[in-house]
Input
Amino acid sequence: MAIISSRPQPANSEDPPPAKVGKKASSSPIQTPKTDPSLPNRELLPKAAIGEETQEAKIRPQRLVDYIGQKDLKGVLQISIAAAQGRKDPLDHLLLYGPPGLGKTTMALILAAEMGTNCQITSAPALERPRDIVGLLMKITAGDILFIDEIHRLSRMTEELLYPAMEDFRLDITIGKGQSAKIRSLPLPPFTLIGATTRVGALSSPLRDRFGLIQRLKFYELDELTTIIHRTAGILPVNITPEGAMEVARRARGTPRIANRLLKRVRDYTQVQQAPQITKELAAAALELLEVDPLGLDWLDRSLLKIIIEHFNSGPVGLESLAAALGEDIKTIEEVCEPYLLQIGYLQRTPRGRVATEAARKHLGY
Ligand code: ADE
Output
């Protein structure tokens, strides 16, 4: 995954520069300095990242006030930030869970900006060997945020190194092997671990229990997604009518990442049509071309529902049989397709398997 580093912003900055987004240059994440105007952030980025202050980075909200939606989560975090700042402590360890694309990484970067600290971003598959996490923890400075994406995929050894690190800010390293092996404990500066997962149930309970805050990100409402699209359109920039923005939002499956992706495709279409702005009609035509239907279902969602309806008599059907019939990975079905289909009531999970609902049958014209 791309490694992203945030440059901390002063708490009262009115116009913060965008977070730097860089390609991963090695297995170690990019570290950024604490707020220090004399230290050019760019010097710490690999060459490939320089000049790649991509639109992606600009589109990400930088501060909590810019972050649209997730009202409950923002309320909880505002209290935590104020309390931690009042005590001059780092934030408690935080576990964010929910479907992909809802803004977990963005929120970690925002928290670093709000706290005025570094954010080191990595993901569990990059921490396969114990030395990977040891290397990261040894580089941490006081108050830093360490963000681990897909935290449910950590190896057992890495997870066990994290327990004392999270609980007592201590790194227990085993030196030597067999009977002569010794454990050396190294103190760590206080830091905040932010874990992100699409599968909170797959976390071991010892790991889950070490998070002081466990928060779910929800799908976004239509009005929130419409506001996000207007904001992104202003950044790109591209002209869009209110009806055009709502049409894109309606097809974005409650997910800002999808909304912004669709907006870019609709922008391309509008540009090629030489139209001055994105209208409802242009948005609909562009998205039909991409096989994104008026509810945001794409080819894979529709195929999944059709297979349940046609091959398994609307279900119930077990996930494995479904994956085999669809020729798709179980994880993609579980983590990418299902959450939204469940949310809109097109799919049900029963003890005997997946069921396509009457609403799904109707939508697909059965
Ligand atoms: N872009 C992507 N997600 C966003 C959000 N939650 N608020 C504002 N802009 C966004």
Q: What stands out?
A: Residues 59, 61, 66-69, 103, 106, 228, 231, 256, 260 surround adenine (CB under 6 Å). The first helix runs from residue 55 to 59. Residues 11 and 62 are 11 Å apart (CA to CA). The chain has a mean pLDDT of 88.
